Amino acid sequence: MLPKIANKPDEYNDYKFRTWEKLGYIDYMTQQEYAQEVFGADSPNVSQALLRDSSFYEKFRTDLSARGYKVEALPISGYLYATKDVALLTRVFRWYAKLIQIDHPYRIQDPNNPGLKRGYFLTRDWGGGLALAASGTIYKYQIWVDDSFPFFHQNIVRLNMGRSYPTFDGVPVLDVISGGQGRSARREIRTTVRGEEVSFFTSIDEHSLKYKPVLDRLDMNKFEDNYADGNLTTIDPSMLGTSFTIGMYSLLLSLAIGLTVGVIAAMKKDRIFDKITMAYIVFISSIPTLLYIALFARFGMKVLGLPDKFPFLGSQNILSYILPTISLSLGGIAGEALWIRRYMVDQMNADYVKFSRSKGLSQAEVFFKHIVRNALIPIVHSIPMAVIGTLAGALITESFYAVPGMGKMFPSAISDYNNAMIIALTFIFTVVSILAIFLGDILVTFVDPRISLAARKEAR
Amino acid sequence: MAKTAERFAFATFDVLESERIAGPRYSYWKSVFQTFFKRKTAIFWLALLLSLTLMSFIQPLVSGYDPAVAPNINTPSTWYQKPSAEHWFGTDDRGNDLWDVVWSGTRMSLSIAFIAAAINIGVGILVGAVWGYSKRLDPILLAVYNVVSNVPYILRSMMLMYIFGRGFWQMILAMTITGWLSIAFFIRTQVMIIRDREYNLASRCLGTPLKRMVTRNILPYMVSVIATLIYQEIPGLINTETILSYLGIGLPSTYPSLGRMIDVYWSFVDTYPHMIVFPGVVMGLVTISFYVVGQLFADASDPRTHR
C-alpha cells in the first residue's frame, strides 16, 4: 500500500491521517467532509466549496480552529484538512465505550432496505443443527449449538477490541486471535433456497454470516436473505485454540508428573531419587527458560525424532504438539514437585502426623490421608494461576517452536508495532489472570472446608 | 603475709569483662561463614561462580571484542572454525573468536542482571520494610500491587521495552520499573509477621523510633530471606534478558549478550553445534552457580542451622 502512494504526497498524507483516525489516535476532517457535513452530502455547494477562490476555505479554518483542530493544507492540491490529537484518557474511555457490542433486531438501519424484517426465529443451519436466528441484527445466527468447544455459541454479545494494523490489516483483533488459520476448507452444502433444492461448494462459515447491504448473483444463489457476508472456515485451529490445547495438556502433565515425583521424593528423602529430583528442580529453576527449551527440543528431535518446529507437520498432526506441550510443562513439573516435597518434609514432624502415627496408621495412610490432603490445598489454589503461567511461559515456547498461538502473537505484534493487538492481548491476559485468582479463591473453599469467603458475623 | 601481697593483686570490677563471660561467644556473621564453608559443594560452586564472574568482567577488557566490528568478515577461512588451541571455543559465522564473544555476552547479561537486581532488591527492601510497618501506606500500595501484579512480569517488561525502545538502560528500566513491587510485597508480608512479635512490642514500649526498629530489629532477622531473594532474582533477570533479546525486543545487535547469542547462532545448531554449545554451557554454569551458592548461603544464614 505505502510504496504505491509514497510519491503522491496528498494521498500519502490522507492515508496517514485516516489510518491514525482508524486506530483512534486523532480526529481527522477534510475540507470535503466538512462541506458535506455543512451542506448535506449531495448538495452542489460541496463542489463549489472546493473551488480555489471559495470563501469556504476561511470558514473551514475558523470553524475547525474553534473546535480545537489544527488546520493545514495539502502540499499539492492545497485543500485544507484538520487534525486533533485524542487525549490519552479519551482514548481509554472510547476503547471501553465500544468494547461491548450487543446485537439486537434494530441494529441494522439500511435506508435502501426499508422492508427488512425484524425479529427472532428458530431455524436449522447447514449442518442441520438447531439455531436461534434473527433478522435486523448484524449477525444472522444469534445462538447455536454444535460439536466444537464450548458447544454452545452466541453472537449476541460480542467484544470489540479494535482492528489490527498493520499485520492482518483491518481485521478485528478478536477475529485474528479466535478465527481459524491456514487455507480455507471447502465442503459441499445441500440446502433449500426459496423453496428450491440447491447444492454448492463453499468455505463460508454460516454461523458468522453478517448483514450485507448489496447482494450479488452468487449470494442470491446461496442465501435467501441479506445475510451473506461470512468468514471462511479454515483447516487449522485459531491462535486461541492452539494455545489453549497446548496450555491445558501441559498443565495436566505438570500436575500429574510434578505431584507424583514430589510425593515420591518426599517419601524417599535423601535417597537417590530425591537427589535426582532436587537436581532437576535446581537445574530448571536456575537456567534460562530458553536454554532448557532449546536443549529439550534438540533431545526431542535427535533422540525421539519429533519435529522441532510446529509447521513441519502442521496442526493436523498430533506429533507437532508433543514437544511444545512437554517443553511448556517442564517448569511446572519442577514447581509442583518442589512445593509438595517441601511441604511434606516440613509436615512430617507436625503434631497431627505424630499423633496419627501413634494411633497406628501405616506410613502410606499417614502420607495420603493426612499430609498430601493438606498439601493439595495451596496447589488447588494455584491451579488457575498456573493457567496464566502457561500463558506467559507460552510466549517463549511458542516462539521457539513457531507455534501459531497467542504467545507467539504477542512478541510479533510488538515487533510489528501492532498497537491494537498489543492492547487487546494485554487486556485479555490481565482479565484472564484476575479471573484465575478469583477462581482459585472459590476452588479452594471446595477443597478446604475451613476456608469461608463470606464475612462471618461473630467477632474473632 | 608479705609474700601473698607480692603475688596477688586485687582485681577491679570490670563490667565489660563480666558481660563477655556471661554471654556465649556467638558472632552471627562468623557462624554464617563457618556453616557455609563447611560444605565442600559450597566451596566448589562459589569458586566456579567467582571465576566465571571475574573471567567475564576481565576477559572482554583484554580482548576488546565489539560486535559492531568484524575484522575477519572478508576472510572466509576464519569462519566456522572448530575449537582448537588457537580458538578455544572455535569461531563464529563472521570469524569472531567465540571465546571473546561468549565472555562479552556473559558480561553484558551479568551487568544487566546485577544492576537490575540491585535496584529491584534495594528499592523492594526499603519500600517493603516501610510498607510492612506503616498502616496508612498499606492500602495504597496494596492497590497498586494488585493492579500491577495481575499482568505477568514478562508481559510487563515486554510492554515497557516496546515503549522505551531497545537498549541497555532501557532494558534495565523495563525490568525495574515494576520489578521491585513483588519483592516489596514479599518483604512486607515477612515484616508483618515479625512486626508483632513480643520483642518488637517490648522495643516499641521502650520508645524505639521507627527507623531503628526497621533497621535494627527487623532487617537482620531477614538476612536469609533476602539471600533467597537475591539468588532467585539474578538468574531470573538473566532469564528475562535472554527472553527479551531472543524475541528481538531486547538489546540491539551492537550489544553482545547471552540471549542474542542463542538467537543469532541457533540457525547453525545443526551445521556448527559448537557455536551454540559453548554459549549455552557458560550460560547454564553462570546461572546454576548463582542459584546454588545463593541457596547454600541462604541456608547458612538461617540462625537455626548454626550450632
TrEMBL record, chain B:
Occurrences of domain ABC transmembrane type-1 (ranges): 106-294
Coiled-coil ranges per UniProt: none
Subcellular location: Cell membrane
InterPro entries associated with the record: BP-dependent_transpt_permease, MetI-like, MetI-like_sf, OppC_N
Signal peptide region: none
GO terms of biological process kind: peptide transport; protein transport; transmembrane transport
TM region positions: 42-62, 108-133, 140-162, 168-187, 218-238, 276-298
Xref: Pfam families: BPD_transp_1, OppC_N
Key word Transmembrane helix present: yes
Membrane topology (UniProt): Multi-pass membrane protein
Keywords for this protein: Cell membrane, Membrane, Peptide transport, Protein transport, Transmembrane, Transmembrane helix, Transport
GO cellular component assignments: plasma membrane
PANTHER family, per database record: OLIGOPEPTIDE TRANSPORT SYSTEM PERMEASE PROTEIN AMID, OLIGOPEPTIDE TRANSPORT SYSTEM PERMEASE PROTEIN APPC
The protein's name in its UniProt record: Oligopeptide transport system permease protein OppC
Origin species: bioreactor metagenome
Lineage: unclassified sequences, metagenomes, ecological metagenomes
Gene from which this protein is expressed: oppC_4
